[in-house]
Specification:
With about 200 residues, this protein is mostly helical. It has one domain. It is built from ten helices and no strands. The longest helix is centred in the last third of the chain and has 24 residues. It is globular. It comes from Planococcus salinarum. Keywords: Membrane, Transmembrane, Transmembrane helix. This is DUF2834 domain-containing protein.
């Protein structure tokens, strides 16, 4: 029930409450034109991390895809709409296991491989290295209130972060070093790596 409530609140926020404007959105043209130098590095890092989060969820959920609903459609949709696609799965589909693992063995082997986990860590590291260019929380706050995209993606980021921590604790209750899941984005990957 809590995930359904969060989903409805997220939709309500995106549609009715997010500050900034849809038209004349200052960040969207810069992203589409590739003028990334004009975007604050923190805004860019958060935007890019919303492309890494789905890879983490794809890994976690497909390695445990034996719940009531198949996880892969929700995980794939998260590449486009983030937590908006995952929350219904958590609300209704993430029930006790009823089926054998749906994910093909070859894909399980790949997703569990050190190679794949290290690729995710490298992607995360590369993204956060952009912050070394210098960033400003004040500029981020300005972007948050000026751009509905930045407003919604910020809230989406925090929801995805919470879901990632929950997922590790829910699907890997006996994992060692579960507290690593609290490291944003890469934490669940580190949990999988140290429990390999």
């Amino acid at each position: 029930m809590i995930f359904l409530l969060i989903w409805l609140l997220l939709i309500g926020y995106a549609v009715f409450l997010a500050p900034g404007t849809g038209a004349n959105n200052p960040v969207i043209p810069q992203l589409l034109s590739g003028d990334w130098g004009a975007i604050d590095p923190l805004v860019l890092a958060v935007f890019n991390s919303l492309g890494i989060f789905p890879l983490v969820f794809l890994t976690l959920l497909l390695l445990n895809d034996r719940m009531r609903w198949p996880a892969w459609p929700f995980a794939l949709l998260s590449f486009g709409i983030g937590a908006f696609s995952l929350l219904p799965y958590y609300a209704f589909g993430l029930r006790k296991p009823e089926k054998k693992l749906r994910t093909p063995r070859w894909l399980v082997r790949f997703l569990r491989s050190r190679f794949w986990l290290v690729v995710l860590i490298i992607m995360w590291t590369g993204n956060w290295l952009t912050l070394l260019q210098g960033f400003s929380f004040a500029d981020y706050v300005d972007s948050f209130f000026a751009s509905s995209l930045v407003s919604v993606m910020t809230v989406d980021w925090f929801v995805l972060y919470g879901l990632s921590v929950y997922t590790v604790y829910r699907l890997y209750p006996d994992a060692r070093y579960k507290r690593l899941a609290w490291v944003p984005i890469v934490g669940p990957v580190l949990v999988l790596l140290v429990n390999d």
